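User: Could you check the structure of this?
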Amino acid sequence: MTNDRSDLPVIAAELQRMRVNAFIVSDIARRTDSQSHRDLMALMRDATEGLQQSRWSMARAHAIGVAPGDDDELDEALEVLLKAAARGSRSVGPQQAFLLGHLLVERRRVDDLKRVLPKLSLLPQQADMLRIDLANPAVDPTSDEQTWTDTFNEVILGGAAPIRLTPPEGEASPFDRLASDVPAGTTGGDLVTVIISSFRPGAELLTSVRSVLAQTWRDLEILVIDDESGPEFAPVYREVEALDPRVRVLSQAENAGTYAARNRAIDEARGVYVTFQDADDWAHPQRIELSVAALAANSLVSGVRTNAVKLSDDLVLARRQNTIRQAVAPTLMFRREQVWPHFGSFDPVRKAADTEFHFRLDAALPGRTIDLQPTLQFMRMSAGSLSRDEFRSGWRHPARMLYRSAMLTWHDELRRGASPYLGREQRAFPTPRRFEITQRPHPVYDLVVLGDWRSDEPRERDAAQWVEMLAAADPARRIALVHLEGFSLEPRRKLHFIEPVRRMIAAGVVEGLAYDDDVQAERIVCIDPTALSYLPRLRSGLRAPEVVVVVDRPEQVARAPFATYDADFIERTAKSAFGGATVWSPRGVDAEHVVAVDRNITGVSLPTAFVPGPRATIASHPGVVTVALGTLAEEPLREASAMVRALAGAGLDVRMRTNGHARRVIDGELQAALGRGEVDVTHRPMLFFPHEVADGVVLAAARDLVVVAPGSRTLLSRVVAEGLASGARVHVPSSAWFEGLPAAPYESPEQLARTLVEGPVPAVTEDLHRRRAVEAAGLEAWYAGLRQPVGAG
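Assistant: Sure, the predicted structure tokens are below.
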């Protein structure tokens, strides 16, 4: 598993020294879906004792239990969680306890669930969900359907009318037997159009349409779209249309997906209100009535959604991917004439356009969509669901991430006043090719660049800059980006890419690809070796004869253990994942200091760092100081903590952007120093999480930028360049300063604090325009060198 890698033991040892919370790594493991993270947690489990060992065992069990590679991993997770719960372990928090309940339901281990349920630290809603499943005879054969409906009505429906199950008949599943005793058609008013798109349906379409016909709201137009299912499905559609005169079947000439079908149906709709229903779902009889009432009560409300609950055919709630209940986009209802002429259409793609439409509505008309509290939609989670395998707890498919990032970029423009109208012939934002109705073939790309494009850190910002420079220098270059996350201690990330990447993709300068897109490239470039150390378990579709790895440090650096990599492992990984030979591209350091003599290297190096263009600034005063921690490890973190205390104690206004673990350490040590009377602060330091604010915002107001534990020369040079571009005076440790670095050296936190307080510090200046020209030439030389034969270092 890990005995052939040199990097993971180093990282594990540092995690142990820093006493990092095991569940931070578990959250990251679920987000990246990387086997390496799972192996790392196994190392931590085996290297620790007592409570720490229990926590790492639980953390690993949580990660593999959500997405097991096979039944053995699922059983491992279940047994670890079960044993911990049985002994009342404090490590079994609500998330882990809920997962255990899901797994026991999935395995139908009813006696075990009944035994441990009273001991589990569950949130009330989680306990209720498991109680419903224990009442389900499909889970516990000693129960019965009446017990299940009584429990379900009490817990899920609350004040809404109760449901029941009709008697078993033929092969109808329990889901298809959902019903209610509420009389249909007892109220009415404005016409409501309900749109149900379908493709090659079975009996589940009848269930869906019947649930709409059973609504208490009688004034309905039900448009069922046959998305070119084929003549063999004509009997189903005839049966559906014969159910009621209010049902009309529309046939598409070609299969164009759910959202093209909805667009066509809305064009033909006559209703004052429009809403939707999936072809295999079941609507509570009061759903339409309550949604109309919410819209009619307030003309400022533009859209209404209802809560939904996800169920199997056997009406089982618990699944590892389930989120209990939530407001869902397919239930959206809006006024047709108020919305449709101004918004144009659903995005005509295969997936996710209902979510985009709801987000667009909220971006253009903020605060004017509401969610009803009652659970009024029952969603069938079948094996054929378009989204079933694309979402898990903490993870989403990379194509979903691409689409979401692109749509949010456009929606930002709507908030600034752009039109929300979306035509059907011209795209407003790029879409993953796998979402296209007719998928265009991928070209052979000149360059595919791998990096952690959700990370707003110096390395990624620098890489985005040189990628944009390459594209601008020759618009014919076919460049694509693929998101891969390396090692971090950030359990939370924004769901979109960093600003320069979003801007490039939106402008068509580069294309965003998913890791499993089947793509051929002339070469792949990875901006840092750690991105290849934590590849997802998802199959790679990328292929290239060469994988160029940009490297700015040796395999192990004592003060930067989390930047450790194993070159042999990376070369094997690159070959198996992408089919190419690894070529190492040293940067900011001589080749012999980072690459063994028997490895292939590029003949020309990238410039050490690129100077960004002028950056936004906020009027500041002399006391504002931003602290940048270049290397996360135990010793550098203590240095950063000492720097924050020294600067804040001198009366300076300190700002810092860092992860949760570092924030807890710095806050804790500052609080302890305050308690001992060792420091007195005028301004409490402002410590921001990376997902809360961009790095440039923190730097924009600073008069001074202080770098602590700067890491590689490449990263230090970039941080200094960003400080200069923001108009800040930059200070670096004297041990890291080198000739030509446009920054002032400092000896200690106390000395620097005195210097900043006592008088003005002369700014170190540099001819940035000349430097940018040199860097542009160096970048082109590097790119040209990639096309030349490479030799051994």
